[in-house]
Amino acid sequence: MKMVEAIVKPFKLDEVKEALTKAGVQGMTVEEVKGFGRQKGHTELYRGAEYSVDFLPKVKIQILVPDDKAAKVVEVITASAKTGKIGDGKIFVTPVDEVIRIRTGEKGEDAI
Amino acid sequence: MKRVRWSHFFASLAIGLWMVLLAGSSFAAEEAKAPEPAKAEAPAAAPVAAAQPAPKLPSYFTGTSDDPKKPPAWPDPTGAASGVWATPAGDAKGDIPEKLSMQDLYDRMAHNLYSINYVWALVAGFLVMFMQAGFMLVETGLCRAKNASHTAAMNLMIYPLGCLAFWVYGFAIGWGNWWNGPVPPGWYPSLGPGLSVLNEGWGLGAAVDAAGKATGAFTYGLIGLKGWFLSGAVGDTGVMVLFFFMMVFMDTTATIPTGAMAERWAWKNYCLFGLWIALPYCLYGNWVWGGGWLAQGGINWGLGHGAVDFAGSGVVHSMGGIIALAGAMVLGPRIGKFDAQGRPNAMPGHDVPMVALGTFILAFGWFGFNPGSTLAGTDLRISYVVVNTMLAGIVGALATMVTLMLKGLKPDTTMMCNGMLAGLVAITAPCAFVDPWAAAVIGLVAGWLVVEAVFFWERRGIDDPVGAISVHGVNGLWGVISVGIFATGQYGAGWNGVVRDEMVKVYGSDGVRGLLYGDLSQFFMQLIDAGTVAIFGFVMAYVWFKISDVITPIRVSKEVEIEGLDGPEMGVLGYPDFQLHPSGMGITMVGESAVASKTAERQGAKVVVEQN
């Protein structure tokens, strides 16, 4: 099993969700996060004093998939979250040791 | 602000008479339908009166009395007659018009006149009281979320604290000798002659009458000394109106420093301040509004009409703003506001829509603040006051916007809020005396001035989270001075007892007149007034904050300030259901990141807050 974590622009969330649902993904977890990458933040003025917005708002989507579907999910996210401009985000794929469905106690891929 | 022109008195008389006649004719109309043909007498009230000898105007109507220590007979000082004193129950006259004498008609007219003025002053006062909500929203919105509960609480509790002090001693020292202030010939009190009980004070040069007896007036009035706890001899309905109206004004002054000193002021020290604020406010209020030495500047020194401050750019706003300046200086800036090189960092307020809502509430309340300061609904100048107030406010906001954009900056929402308030503050003193174009110019200058002032204080290392010093202090002084520039002379004849023959000869009357309209001396008097409030207010406040700091520390500990004052000081978080981030999270101060210790402090702060 793989954990696919995608950090995308907030306004792309709906498109990504639609695309993933079409591709057969049944569940996901979404978090509002802040951060920066190579593009860094930008500066603003408040009542005459300068401040920089270092951490830009992003949305992090977590999807747990069987090993064989990970590549497909990554492909769908890449296609749907892409704007071609700086700050589109990143996708991390990591192995997952175990998954347990709390209600039934099912384990492994059955629990996805 | 309390003076009502003699011509308005006649206007009021005419209105009152008209109302009486209207009532009479409606009675007549009803009786005409009745089979009994008694109608002939009713509409004939006026001719009958003309046939009688002219009645003597009652002394309570003119406000004159042979003995100044003894107020003129005032039929219903406590309101106990339930509004029917004009035709007292039991005299068998009731409300039957044909049985009313001319004296009764005068009684009725006086009653109606004072009723109109009471209602006007009270309703305007209600609007001013509601400005507390505006201040609460503006100040709370401009502070950070971790101090929201504390800032809101300061704005809430200044109302009871300030009111208590005003009731105990403030009103007495401010307005205790109100009756002996300088007035023009023919002046009458718009809230009724009952105000004549406010007749004890102290000053330099006690005036004496022909018989050598002290009149209670002073050449240089310094303080009032009657009306402690509103008890005893000041029990009069008019005094209650004056007390209420002046009280809600003082709370505006009291709540201004809470903004400039927000996010670091210790609660106990703030409570002491709330009980102290009535002292400087009411002393200076006495000098300008209570008939004291600044109001007497025209009589004593020939400087215009003495200090003229219609609704309190100086008395209310400058005083508040200057106390705020002293407070911000004694407190010092918030942790992280200035970097090691002294450059200011932004600490954005947490709720900008809240600030804008508060600004609207304040702008609405100003329609009570300024026109209500006539203390007379029968003073038709109120329409000018309203229009001038509106124009200065909107031009102030626009001027701030344009100033920022000309500087190449974005039109900061919070600054535009400040700009609208700056225009309103500035027009508060001149609102009754200037033409609408001048109101717009005054607002224009105010909107520009507030931007320059906010940036100026930041460069000077003075931390004012809400811009109170710039909005109220700087523009309050500008408002006081602008009277001496733009006042047209149309309104305010005999203001503060000044009627100069040479002015009457040239202009037909002696209204309040600025330097553009031919009275340079008024301008100098306004400068003296502005200088007085700036120096007196600052010295009083600076000394007070230093002394009170010894009694109980003025500033919270570093740990408390970093965590946010809500929990440690109030025990109640403003937003308990949200995870709060200090401004270091998501927003880093420019320049600060280079300072390792500051960065560590900020990260430390983050840990503390997130543990909440």
Short description:
The complex is a heterodimer of chains A (112) and B (612). With 112 residues, chain A is of the alpha+beta class.
Task: List descriptors.
heterodimer; A: 112 residues; Alpha-Beta Plaits; four-stranded antiparallel beta sheet; 37% strand; elongated; B: 612 residues; disordered N terminus; disordered C terminus
Coarse structural class of chain B = mainly alpha
Largest interface: A-B, 15 and 23 residues
Uncertain runs of chain A? none
**Cα radius of gyration of chain A in angstroms:** 17 Å
- State the helicity of chain B in percent bands: 55-70%
Q: Spatial order of the strands in the main sheet of chain B? A: 1-2
Biggest sheet of chain B: strands, sense, closure?
A: 2 strands, antiparallel
Task: Indicate the overall shape of chain B.
Answer: globular
Question: Beta-sheet strand percentage of chain A?
Answer: 35-45%
**CATH architecture call of chain A:** 2-Layer Sandwich
The total count of strands of chain A amounts to: 6
Number of strands of chain B: 3
Low-confidence stretches of chain B: 1-7, 9-50, 86-90, 582-612
Total number of helices of chain A: 2
* Overall pLDDT of chain B: 84
Protein structure class of chain A: alpha+beta
Distance between the termini of chain B: 51 Å
The percent of residues in helical segments of chain A reads: 10-25%
Shape of chain A: elongated
Describe the structure.
The complex is a heterodimer of chains A (112) and B (612). Chain A has two helices and six strands, in the order E-H-E-E-E-E-H-E. Chain A has one domain: Alpha-Beta Plaits, CATH 3.30.70. In chain A, helix 1 (13-22) packs antiparallel against helix 2. In chain A, strand 3 (42-46) and strand 4 (49-53) form a beta hairpin. In chain A, 21% of the residues are buried. The radius of gyration of chain A is 17 Å and the shape is elongated. By secondary structure, chain A is α+β, with helices and mostly antiparallel strands. Chain B has a domain at 6-112. Chain B contains 21 helices and three strands. In chain B, strand 1 and strand 2 (214-224) form a beta hairpin. The longest helix of chain B has 41 residues, at 102-142. The model of chain B is unreliable at 1-7, 9-50, 86-90 and 582-612 (pLDDT under 50). The A-B interface holds A 34, 41, 43-55 and B 344-348, 409-410, 412, 414-415, 451, 454-455, 458, 467, 583, 585-591.
